[in-house]
Amino acid sequence: MKHSDWLAYRKRWRLKNIDKLRAETRAYYAANRDRVLVRQAKYRKENREYLRQRTKEWRRKNRQRSRDMFLEYRQKYPDIIRAAARRRYYNLLPEMYDALLRKQNGVCAICKGDGNGRELQVDHCHETHKVRGILCADCNSGIGRLKDDPFLIEKALLYLVETME
């Protein structure tokens, strides 16, 4: 039997016995879960660049499916997406975010509001990237629009006090 004939036979056999193969794979994984996870982690570590390139290529070829899968994941797991963004942008782990929120009694550090149904945001210094606290969207935008400048914020306060009726 030629090699190409053998491959064709093997492919037909796999298609015919797919349920049996899946059951065997599940049983093996259940019995050897720890070994499988260690082996997978080792493989991913040793082949990081190859896997990145392969994923990039797949996403390029399957642009719409990739986008649909991401949107579905984002909708299904919004907390994971937000936690990953906080870690990426602010190096803030979920435990650290929760500790900050507990320290502020779960409210905005400025207005003491609960965010009006929206999640409270991480406030940070744009120069040092140091996290200062957790704010509602309105307070965070207000500070940002005043360029994080205490002098401008003080001038805005004085303006409001002077123009009060």
Q: What shape does the CA trace take?
A: elongated
Number of strands: 2
Low-confidence stretches: none
Major beta sheet, strand line-up? 1-2
Q: Give me the number of helical elements.
A: 9
Query: How far do the termini sit from each other?
Result: 97 Å
Structural class: mainly alpha
Output mean pLDDT.
94
Q: What share of residues is helical? A: 55-70%
- Beta-strand content: 5-15%
User: What is the element string, with H for helices and E for strands?
Assistant: HHHHHHHEEHH
Biggest beta-sheet profile: 2 strands, antiparallel
Rg, alpha carbons: 26 Å
Topology of this protein?
Elements: H1 3-16, H2 18-31, H3 33-46, H4 48-61, H5 63-76, H6 78-90, H7 94-103, E1 121-124, E2 131-135, H8 137-145, H9 150-162
Helix pairs in contact: 4-5
Considering the chains and any ligands shown, give keywords for the structure.
mainly alpha, 5% strand, 165 residues, 2 strands, 9 helices, two-stranded antiparallel sheet
Molecular structure report:
With 165 residues, the protein is mainly alpha-helical. The protein is 70% helix and 5% strand. It has 9 helices and 2 strands. The chain has helices spanning 3-16, 18-31, 33-46, 48-61, 63-76, 78-90, 94-103, 137-145, 150-162, and strands at residues 121-124, 131-135. Strands 1-2 form a two-stranded antiparallel sheet. Helix 4 crosses helix 5 (63-76). It is elongated, with a radius of gyration of 26 Å. The relative contact order is 0.05.
Short description:
Helix 4 (48-61) crosses helix 5.
